[in-house]
């Protein structure tokens, strides 16, 4: 649900409207990611009219320096022991909307200047009047492992990828873009009148006050109390990311409430719930390049808090499962909490969880995990479809591994020196051959058999060397007697 404000500025921006307009109205800063010609500056210029028609300024972070941003230090003030600047028409001091282009390509000195401007709303300690700072960046420079200083990135409330209109463009899309371009009658005209934007910003600010007065801050605190621990864990496991307390305890809740105020004005029945999805996506997922699907699961498990309800046992399980993104950790959680999972979740949801584990273990280079998944499902007493599929995929993987290894075994034994290790390896090879012939190798769940199964699959996938020395050490280190 949107008000359609951005439809009159840039084509295809509707999905971004609640975040962009909500943050602008609440005087927050954000970053737009997109290539040249996608309307990033045009968007900021158009919305800045809501602050007044003459308060917009554009800086190129790769070219503009202190003089073009602040002006020239005033010698008379310096002689009096005060730092003052002689401003010019582009000076930052009286501007309400600041656009900083290509901020990811700014030099270290320039980034330090913008860091102060963003965090303190000052320039060399002197106060600034701006309402919102909008940075822009090219996707390649942003994705290149953050050429932007992490401390500077941390000051932006949200990072929003803008539509680039390259794939799937149809004739109707082109006509709509042309109509919008012609109706604007030049880059500096906007469809939304300044007075209308100013009224909208004021409505969003009032809605924000009403949300706070109605207890929204407490509900957001309860929600983030559930979300943030799972979020931090998922971020660390996925990419080893550090997400600062500034991001999750200031920027994220402020973004959520600003976007909720927009949704309230737009008439949404549950503005907090609608805003939480956007806030997680643009204040966290795109900002730190996290998988949105993980955050969606975390949100779904905690969203009851936004209605003023406590989290159920099922929601707590969903949160903990969503946070455990690594296969081994999810499998361990399944083992440790199986009775509670069976009691709290419906069968189809359990099957979905097991299906995700199976898909993860079935990927090329990960198929050794099928061994432990199968063992865990048997141990838990589960006998559903996920077990049958695991058996089938493991059988295919093991057959390929056994067929690769069997021809090498005799040569491996012949190449070793006589001794106790060789005799132990020879005995294990004979038992292994007998188990394969009788079909018992797949069915056995003995510890050393599982270890052999796992290593053989690893060898077939190239994760472990399969030369004679490695094979010998493997068969000499296990005991298949009685398996």
Describe this structure in words.
It is a single chain. The protein has helices at 17-25, 40-48, 66-70, 75-79, 108-120, 139-143, 150-153, 171-184, 194-213, 216-239, 245-266, 271-288, 292-302, 313-323, 327-336, 338-344, 347-362, 369-379, 385-414, 420-438, 440-443, 447-460, 468-476; strands at 30-33, 56-60, 72-73, 85-86, 97-101, 122-123, 126-127, 132-137, 158-161. With 483 residues, the protein is of the alpha/beta class. The protein has three domains: 6-187, Rossmann fold, CATH 3.40.50.300; 213-323, no CATH class; 327-476, no CATH class. The strands form three sheets. The protein has a five-stranded parallel beta sheet with strand order 2-5-8-1-9. Strands 3-4 form a two-stranded antiparallel ribbon. Strand 6 and strand 7 (126-127) form a beta hairpin. Helix 1 crosses helix 9, helix 10 crosses helix 11 (245-266) and helix 17 runs parallel beside helix 19. The radius of gyration is 30 Å and the shape is elongated.
Layout of SSEs?
Layout: H1 17-25, E1 30-33, H2 40-48, E2 56-60, H3 66-70, E3 72-73, H4 75-79, E4 85-86, E5 97-101, H5 108-120, E6 122-123, E7 126-127, E8 132-137, H6 139-143, H7 150-153, E9 158-161, H8 171-184, H9 194-213, H10 216-239, H11 245-266, H12 271-288, H13 292-302, H14 313-323, H15 327-336, H16 338-344, H17 347-362, H18 369-379, H19 385-414, H20 420-438, H21 440-443, H22 447-460, H23 468-476
Parallel strand pairs: 1-8, 1-9, 2-5, 5-8
Antiparallel strand pairs: 3-4, 6-7
Helix pairs in contact: 1-9, 1-11, 9-11, 10-11, 10-13, 10-14, 11-12, 12-13, 13-14, 17-19, 18-19, 19-20, 19-22, 19-23, 20-23
